[in-house]
């Protein structure tokens, strides 16, 4: 039995502990916002937060979340109005959108660590999440915007 | 009322054009073909004036989307065309996916499909006319209700107003009256000066879903009782399974069945992870085939043979061989373009539910009509029993015009009598793609004494994409897709010859963002810069000389001139490329540097003339994504072969451009009254030549193969 917290709710699962968190989220909980892109931790589409830190859920076995707190894109905000989500809308970041959950969760972890990140800090964090549509410049703008919501959302 | 699909002589487009010319109105030659001529009375609670619009008495306004949203923004831009003429706000409508019906045929592709930068071009007249037709009916219904002339009424935000300022009726209140009015046979479109939506920045309708993780992509489909499946294929091109052992796979917890299918060995399970785990325990051995010896080196050698000897002549003007012989300076070069994968972020997948009485297919596809046709062939069900639900697409780039993943899902669901979701792994996706073809190119040019090229020779050598996809379009040995862009070269040469030599390989090939332009723009624009250098000419000035009779192209270069002349930091090179594709024209300037032995693209300036712009920010986004897609193919990897198999398996050996490699991009949109051109395919082909030309300027040597290696 593995106990953990998922988007604020306590959960208990009796699954093979090697099962990657990605498939637990997608197939057991129906939380399909977290995406499968490569299964090897190279693309970042599956990023979620584990105790606030970004992890690639495709390479995170269920066993390693025991007693810890997992946050997915569905749990980022109750109404889709997290500053990052608002900024993402205003900057029109997504194109196909498939990688964007991973991008936003990585950005959320970045802002938790650096509330006013520099371009270099943004680049260092976000270079781990691939986007085939090239939304990178808009992501940078959106993160800056989200980092100063009192100014940008008036 | 004319039913376009039963009219033998005039297609719907012909009708639209003919009437548009003669009366200033647009003829409406289409309805739901299935309902044309029937006496079916519309339900009073709703009214469908045409195939795109459904107005409800409860106030809902449903607009149908018949194209795939794969990041290019059609969900918003096509809806804007309908809403503009219907006089409704984007905040007042609901979007629902269109079913498969001939009325939704994309006339530029010849089927109900999305790709090649065709959606806006195809929908430009039709969708506006559909909106205008419904608005005309709403106004007619209000005028009848009030007993006033229609000319005294106008519509705004789903309400009709009378000119006296005292009366108005919502569309929902007019549904019942309008449903009993005769459909108009002509409509008048709004003049540009009255547009409220077209040409304005509109927020994308899919963005709120995508930032919440709530957009349903193919892999997000969940059906009751659904199983998950994955298929192990032979890695060698065209090989078949000889022997296999499935006991360990079958014993994996959660695995339900393991069996042979046409494409390989299928592992079916209760969860995705169980299917993947079971698959990892399969042992397969493939029958050795002649392709087992294929390497990139062999393929290159095969194409090399085509550089000489016979070829099909696609275009011949003047006398190139004589002009070359008489020229002051003759230059020749051979260029090489490799296979490329699509690497959509969402790997290929499909979910099918085949039942005795019908079939539902949930799939991220660019080709829903072909999907239905394949399912019909596989199941024997009539088409009206086969419903295709197009999900959001996690990238398309031409890959999702194919049906191999549909075949997987339909076959498995049919056999298991359960809904099945087939998932391709990243390795499957990279190793079993329909690749952008490898090509070789021989170019020759002759310069006069002043350095101006007078003669231009280009031979394209490569496999034919259409040989598999649409062989009927191959004429006189020429695959038009393979010479796209080389044929329509905008430059004026006194003598020009274009040849195509088909050289097929065992490698599966297909459509890829920009198609033929992606290789031809690279070689022609690079070779032009080689000529400029040899003739002592500035690359932009030489293009101006060769485009003297093309004001539209000159206008693009004029807008770039200031950037071209601006001071450049030491250690950087600047290059230029011009592409004409999908009815649009683009001039792209690249600024690059070399750092630690690697090429860094620092900045691009794109000047685009795509006719009338529907949603400007979506166009800029397409320029950005086209550049990034092209930059990956220019600087990163390629698909290569050894032992008959693709060598690349993941993003480690097939890397994509990363965040920290993103160049600065400035987009300039030319204002135009011309009908819209396509945008998705145009930037990608311009990147490789702009970057290679910048490196030629910086390092003094040409870069004649991709990806660029210093």
Number of strands of chain A: 5
Mean pLDDT of chain B, as a whole number? Answer: 93
Strand order of the largest sheet of chain B: 12-13-10-20-17-18-19
Order of helices and strands of chain A: EEHEEEHHHHH
The biggest beta sheet of chain B reads:
7 strands, mixed
Helix content estimate of chain B: 25-40%
User: Which class do the helix and strand fractions of chain A yield?
Assistant: alpha+beta
Rough outline of chain B: globular
Oligomer class: heterodimer
CATH superfamily of the largest domain in chain A: Beta-grasp domain
Pfam family, one (chain A): Fer2
GO molecular function, one term (chain A): 2 iron, 2 sulfur cluster binding
Keywords (chain A): 2Fe-2S, Iron, Iron-sulfur, Metal-binding, Oxidoreductase
InterPro entries (chain A): 2Fe-2S-bd, 2Fe-2S-bd_dom_sf, 2Fe-2S_ferredoxin-like_sf, 2Fe-2S_ferredoxin-type, 2Fe2S_fd_BS, Beta-grasp_dom_sf, Diverse_Oxidoreductases
Topology:
The complex is a heterodimer of chains A (154) and B (710).
Chain A: E1 2-6, E2 9-13, H1 21-28, E3 47-50, E4 53-56, E5 69-71, H2 83-90, H3 100-113, H4 119-126, H5 136-147, H6 149-152
Parallel strand pairs in A: 1-5
Antiparallel strand pairs in A: 1-2, 3-4, 3-5
Helix pairs in contact in A: 2-5, 3-4
Chain B: H1 12-23, E1 26-27, E2 46-50, E3 53-56, E4 61-65, H2 74-86, E5 94-97, H3 119-146, E6 153-156, E7 159-162, E8 168-170, H4 171-179, E9 186-187, H5 207-211, E10 227-232, E11 241-245, H6 247-250, E12 255-261, E13 264-269, H7 272-280, E14 283-286, H8 296-305, E15 312-317, H9 320-326, E16 329-337, E17 349-355, E18 358-363, H10 368-379, E19 386-390, H11 404-416, E20 420-423, H12 426-431, E21 439-447, E22 453-462, H13 466-469, E23 495-502, H14 517-534, H15 539-546, H16 551-565, E24 572-581, E25 584-595, E26 598-609, H17 616-635, E27 641-642, E28 645-646, E29 664-669, H18 683-699
Parallel strand pairs in B: 4-5, 10-20, 18-19, 22-23, 26-29
Antiparallel strand pairs in B: 1-9, 2-3, 3-4, 6-7, 7-8, 10-13, 11-14, 12-13, 15-23, 16-21, 17-18, 17-20, 21-22, 24-25, 25-26, 27-28
